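To: structure subgroup
Subject: Chain for Friday's discussion

All,

I'm putting the inputs and outputs inline so they're searchable in the archive.
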Amino acid sequence: MSASDDVATRFARVRAKIHEAAVRAGRQPSEVDLVGAAKTKPARDVVAAVRAGLRHVGENYVQEAEAKIAAVRASLEDEGLPLPRWHFIGHLQRNKVRHLAPIIDMVETVDSERLGAELDKRAGTAARTLEVLLQVDLDDEPAKGGVSPEGLPALLAASTSWANLRVTGLMAIPAAHPDPEQSRPAFARLRALRDELRDAPGGAGLRELSMGMTADFEIAIEEGATLVRVGTALFGPREAKA
């Protein structure tokens, strides 16, 4: 079996699990988008996943995203295939924003007013409107990034001044647990935060919940995820980053 066949097989398996989890929760499977987390994976694997039906791709590193997006675009255009939507799902430094704004479609990790303002400025320079999610630190793990739940309303209100960004939801990376069920309370809390803030300043557009990865995406779907970021289950084990 070729590497592209492996990716296609894994994609079908992940989509089947998404369908089953949504049905268990009384939801429509179409409410959940799969984001292929392609960190350290080559462009050919992303192209294989897009051939299989993947429509959203996530990248963690700006430099890697720049090179990979260009390579994937060239391959897909040669084949006449649709281009995926690109999500940035890693920690974002303000000094890297200028490289990212022209090439990405959604930034899932906005966690401060300063970062949002810089992204807004760079998106304007690139004549683009970007979709963004506000990353929330649910477990007091600052190293992962994220605004505290207590600071989220103020950040959401500040977002109303970002003319070139659309805040459409929340994202979280809960603490890792050996049992996926242990992530359920965090997923439920993120859903509750989104629902509570829909009537707050800046909250009218909140619909997305990006939560759940390979180990726990089925639990996340049962708790309301609309975006699941799946890497290993789709692309196989990761190689070490060069």
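Points worth raising on Friday:
DSSP finds nine helices and eight strands in the chain.
The mean pLDDT is 95.

D.
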